[in-house]
Amino acid sequence: MGRILVLALIIVLFFWVIRSFRRALKKGQEEARTPASLEGEDMVRCIHCGVHLPRSESITSEGEFFCSEDHRRLHLEP
Ligand SMILES: [Zn+2]
Fold this sequence. Notes:
By secondary structure, this protein is α+β, with helices and mostly antiparallel strands. It has helices spanning 2-33, 36-40, 69-76; strands at 43-45, 52-54, 59-61, 64-66. The chain is rod-shaped. The chain binds zinc ion (ZN). Zinc ion (ZN) binds next to loops.
């Protein structure tokens, strides 16, 4: 009788481990799906049109950020 109880406990434990493992795997996949560029990099806003873009893709002039050379020119030239 004691052996059956131990066996049942092992089975329950086995399914519990699999379930938590699957949950961890699913969570890991969701995290991996997030693009690294959006997580690791600062987002800046074009002062001319308001679009958000990564800092490395922006144009900086006089402490302001722009999405393109055209917008930098349009904003700085009256
Ligand atoms: Zn712009």
